[in-house]
Amino acid sequence: MIDKEKVERAAALLLEGLGEDVGREGLRETPKRIARMYEELLGGMGQSPQEHLEKAFEAQGNGIVLEKDIVFHSVCEHHLLPFFGKAHIAYLPDGKVVGLSKLARTVEVYARRLQIQERLTAQVADALMAYLQPKGVMVLLEAEHMCMAMRGVKKPGTQTVTLESRGVFSEAEGLQESFWRMLGR
Ligand code: ZN
Description:
By secondary structure, the chain is of the alpha+beta class. It has helices at about 5-15, 30-40, 50-55, 100-110, 115-130, 145-150, 170, 175-185, and strands at about 55-60, 65-75, 80-90, 95, 115, 135-145, 160-165.
């Protein structure tokens, strides 16, 4: 859980360290704003997608379910700068499906933490396997990292792509091909 008071003090200290006058008008409320902002941006800490994913319902049919272009925003733990992009999630149900918004919720729970993209991708895949228990899962994340665009190598527009497969998707190549086809790649 976030200690807002501590974040406020730290933000003021950071501004001071940056050579700023924390008393000047534009900055006076900044530590408070920063504390509120982090509470929102990192609101997924301590949350679990379990309750969302366990609201599954029985379904006939045995085809792949794909939800693509789920927009997400996260914060990189190395620089505290945002990275954001799209998640594409496919799963092969084993008699149970969830409402489509639950997949987006699952991404949200893990994106709203200090993250690295690789871990975010794996956590979404593992949560689906654990709580929805499908035959398999495929999770693809494409994101732009502000720590790549604004600093260091300064390469805006670069997309980082991460992929995790679980269950039948890691075993059967035909299924992976179907995933790419459904994504239109
Ligand atoms: Zn970074």
